[in-house]
């Protein structure tokens, strides 16, 4: 193979790989959500028992069924220790995640900088509409097997804010305008370092959802 052809093939492979990587980075899912307010007695009893320490001290507590495109979840919204908390459960009553509603300026300064830099670099204009810190249970590997805290341990770690055993993420709903002047509503998930993990296009905006 002559040198020119060899360099041509290498260059073509690099361009192809770059395009594939770019497409993967820009992969966007969809989020469809509709909230239905329900009564406390319609909520799974084991779930209520699990978060009893929070409910005892919570105020303005409300219960919901969140309808996704092909499934549903149960969610509690309450104000606990002056924090606006949402706790989401799978339909079988097992715990999915716990989130706290925040203002952007309440996030760590370095996270603010990373998130601002991301939006400024990728969009012509943007407006951050809803920001939540998401507390996820940590996953560990023991003897080659994955070890995940059970629901009771997860709630206990959250109550103690044991950040060594919790994975912090930042969930942001934003309205953006791209370089082609196309407007859209998206949900962005950033990791603990402020790097994007996931982007979902919001099919139905959460504005008509019931907040706290």
Spell out the blueprint of helices and strands.
Layout: H1 3-25, E1 29-31, E2 34-38, H2 45-50, H3 52-57, E3 59-67, E4 72-80, E5 83-90, E6 95-102, H4 109-122, E7 125-137, E8 139-142, E9 145-148, H5 151-159, E10 166-177, E11 183-190, E12 196-202
Parallel strand pairs: 1-12
Antiparallel strand pairs: 2-3, 3-4, 4-5, 5-6, 6-7, 7-10, 8-9, 10-11, 11-12
Detailed description of the structure:
The chain is of the alpha+beta class and 212 residues long. The protein has one domain (28-208): Nuclear Transport Factor 2, Chain: A. Helices cover 27% and strands 42% of the residues. The chain has five helices and twelve strands. It has helices spanning 3-25, 45-50, 52-57, 109-122, 151-159; strands spanning 29-31, 34-38, 59-67, 72-80, 83-90, 95-102, 125-137, 139-142, 145-148, 166-177, 183-190, 196-202. Strands 1-12-11-10-7-6-5-4-3-2 form a ten-stranded mixed sheet. The chain has a two-stranded antiparallel ribbon with strand order 8-9. A hairpin with a 2-residue loop joins strand 4 and strand 5. The protein is globular, with a radius of gyration of 21 Å. The chain starts with a helix and ends in a 10-residue tail after the last strand. 15% of the residues are buried.
At the fold tier of CATH, the topology name is Nuclear Transport Factor 2, Chain: A
Number of domains: 1
**Which strand order does the major sheet show?**
1-12-11-10-7-6-5-4-3-2
Please count the beta strands (DSSP E, at least 2 residues each). 12
Give me the CATH architecture, please.
Roll
Mean pLDDT over all positions: 83
Distance between the termini: 68 Å
Strand content: 35-45%
Low-confidence stretches at least 5 residues in length (pLDDT < 50)? 3-26
User: What's the CATH C level?
Assistant: Alpha Beta
């Amino acid at each position: 193979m002559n040198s020119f052809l060899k360099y041509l093939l290498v260059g073509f492979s690099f361009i192809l790989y770059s395009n594939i990587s770019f497409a993967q980075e820009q992969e966007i899912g969809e989020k469809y959500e509709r909230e239905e307010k329900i009564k406390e007695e319609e909520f799974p009893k084991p779930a209520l028992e699990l978060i009893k320490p929070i409910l005892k001290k919570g105020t303005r507590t409300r219960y919901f069924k969140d309808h996704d495109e092909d499934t549903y979840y149960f969610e509690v919204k309450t104000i606990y220790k002056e924090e606006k908390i949402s706790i989401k459960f799978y339909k079988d009553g097992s715990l999915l995640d716990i989130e706290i509603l925040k203002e952007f300026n309440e996030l760590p300064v370095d996270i603010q900088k990373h998130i601002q830099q991301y939006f400024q670099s990728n969009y012509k204009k943007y407006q951050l509409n809803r920001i939540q810190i998401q507390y996820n249970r940590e996953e560990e590997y023991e003897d080659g097997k994955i070890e995940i805290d059970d629901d009771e341990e997860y709630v206990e770690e959250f109550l103690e804010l044991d950040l060594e055993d919790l994975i912090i993420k930042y969930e942001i709903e934003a309205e953006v305008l791209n370089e082609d002047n196309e407007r859209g509503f998206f949900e962005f998930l950033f990791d603990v370092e402020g790097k994007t993990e996931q982007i979902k296009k919001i099919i139905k905006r959460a504005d008509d959802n019931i907040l706290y």
